[in-house]
Amino acid sequence: MRRTSYRKSWLSALLLLAVFGITVTLSTTKVVHAQDNAFDDAVQENVDAAPASANETTAIPRQSYLTWALRALGIPYTLVFLALSFTLVALLVMNLLTASRNTICPIHLVEGFENHLNEKQYQEAYELAKSDESFLGQVLSAGLAKLQSGYAQAIEAMQEVGEEENMKLDHRLSYMQLIGTISPMIGLLGTVQGMIESFSVIANSPTTPKPAELAQGISKALFTTLIGLFIAIPAIAIYSILRNRISRLVLEVGILSEGLMSRFENVGTQK
User: Fold this and answer.
1) Is residue 269 in a domain?
2) N or C: which end of the chain has fewer CB within 10 A?
3) Is 77 exposed, middle or buried (CB count within 10 Å of its CB: 0-12, 13-18, 19+)?
4) Residue 102 pLDDT exceeds 90
5) Taking a C-beta distance cutoff of 8 angstroms, is the pair 83, 21 a contact?
6) pLDDT above 70 coverage of the chain, percent
7) Which domain range does residue 183 map to?
8) What's the mean per-residue pLDDT of the chain?
9) Predicted confidence band at 221 (pLDDT cuts at 50, 70, 90)?
10) d(Cα 253, Cα 264) in Å, to the nearest integer?
11) What confidence category does residue 101 fall into, taking pLDDT thresholds of 50, 70 and 90?
């Protein structure tokens, strides 16, 4: 079954992304800890080796941009943004498979169904539509199943199934919009927290605080906002593109299904 193969591919994609996410998280944590330890050791060595003269300064090794970002975010925000990122990629893979023409409106089903109707093989046409797990197959099989009650009832059954299938597609797609909505909010939360930490340093310091002491909170405020927007912008853009594509394919399903069933328009009206 086509739908079964799609489900297996979705599960495989989710499993691979989960394993990859855990591996990247553990590796990143180890790298950050190792770089932090090396940074602290280097600073301590420079402090120990510093001359007694106050005019000479101690050279502090410059940390990399990635280390700076991870230290500013901290483990909680890093894990949250990694989870959102991998979830977004998994949803993207699933929705790309779902938004394909073979899943919603396969051409081979249209041609086979029409050939059976032209040869008056109505039972074969029903079995073909019933065995196809696509959107169009579900709609056509529902219409043929209710055709004995009349054409109007068949059209109504097709509309009900179409609305149900469309709701399933929309629900799966809406999770991408949800990620695009909450990612900037999490970034804003980190911004507020980082600014509070910076002002707390100023308020609790008996003397003028050093810039390095304020940099941690300000870095958290900026990096959380940056990562939140970095996730939200592609999520909302891809959501809009896929939603328009699915809407176009669903409209095509409605036109094709009513066109194929129009030959039964007089069923139930003859006396």
Assistant:
1) no
2) C
3) buried
4) no
5) yes
6) 73
7) 65-264
8) 77
9) confident
10) 18
11) confident
What one-letter code names the amino acid at 73? L
Q: How many folded domains does the chain comprise?
A: 1
In a domain, 37, yes or no: no
Give burial (CB, 10 Å; 0-12/13-18/19+) of 88.
Answer: buried
Q: What is the largest CA-CA distance in the chain?
A: 112
- The number of helices, as runs of H, and strands, as runs of E, in the chain is 8, 0
Structural domain contains residue 51? no
237: confidence class by pLDDT, cuts 50, 70, 90: very high
Based on C-alpha coordinates, what's the Rg of the chain? 30
Residue 62 — left, alpha, or beta (φ > 0 → left; ψ -120 to 50 → alpha)?
Answer: beta
CB 199 within 8 A of CB 245: no
In this prediction the pTM is 0.69
* Sequence letter at residue 104: I
Tell me if 21 is assigned to some domain.
Answer: no
Distant-in-sequence, close-in-space partners of 122: CB < 8 Å, separation ≥ 6: 116, 144
